[in-house]
Amino acid sequence: MRPLRSALLWMARNERLAHSIPRMRFAQRAVRRFMPGERVEDAFGAAERLRDERIRVLFTRLGENLQTLDEARAVAEHYLEVIDRDAERGHVVGPVEISIKPTQLGLDQDPGACLDICHELARRCAAAGTWFWLDMEGSAYTDRTIELAEALMAEHDNVGIAIQSYLKRSAADVTRLLPHRPAIRLVKGAYDEPADIAYREAAEVDANFLGLALIVAEAAASGDARLALGTHDVELIGQIDTLTAARGVDRSRLEVHMLYGIREQELRRLRDAGHPAFSLLAYGEAWYRWYMRRLAERPANVVFALRQLIP
Predict the structure, then answer these.
(1) pLDDT of 242-262, one tens digit each?
(2) Three-state SS for 297?
(3) What is the reported pTM?
(4) Contact, 229 vs 259, CB < 8 A?
(5) Residue 70 annotated among the catalytic residues of the structure
(6) Fewer C-beta within 10 Å: the chain N or C terminus?
(7) Considering 135, 173, 206, 241, which one is annotated as catalytic?
(8) Residue 135 is a catalytic residue
(9) One of 185, 226, 253, 293 is an active-site residue; which one?
(10) What angle do CA 302, 99, 219 make, to 5 degrees?
């Protein structure tokens, strides 16, 4: 599977493919497995259905590495409108949480301005009783994203961050964040990183995910952290569940975050077993790179994508 993963990640980086493939009808059909649509209205529609099933939601508008601060401010304004609109609609299970890449908020252009934008989003989320999550990007951004999270967590108690288990540094990053009583979403990682900084074998990535989960779960058990398992690997979730239960951690402390449309039956099963269940609703026109990384994360999804070639 590793050659296929490498090929998919190469496709995610290829500018020519990023320009041409999104125009193809089969690709537009295939991506609907992972997102309800390109418009925020599509995300709100899916959110209502999921809330009826007692599944909470996170919104993320796709995009990364914006070119100007004006674009970053426009992204922030979009999310402020989402927060206000959601509050007006009321909450069946809980409010929409938002999850954003720092390079959508000006990190490349001006880290100080990016921090100011993030503070504004965190404040508005707090007023609405919800959470602001920082997505993790490629390893070139890891240090800056951790620093951004620390600055935000020093002033807000509703800020979360994604941590990637394929990075060898992640245990140190988790330990560094724990004094801030953090919210941490563990993910396996979906970028093409070199072997000197990242685990390349699936078993190593899974083992690190398990170890990181146990560290955060211990803090979560006493209310000093929030833990989200951002994976569709239900076998791995089961292992974490068993080991944390033996340590006295209640399932209510082990959230499960899955992508919209993926293993929803398993997500409902985990919800019924006592895990807080969340669905990540992605939307927007800039879906190509994100979609290719989702295929690379779980190459079995390629079979589904290939079926879309058949009219």
Answers:
(1) 999 999 999 999 999 999 988
(2) helix
(3) 0.87
(4) no
(5) no
(6) C
(7) 135
(8) yes
(9) 185
(10) 100
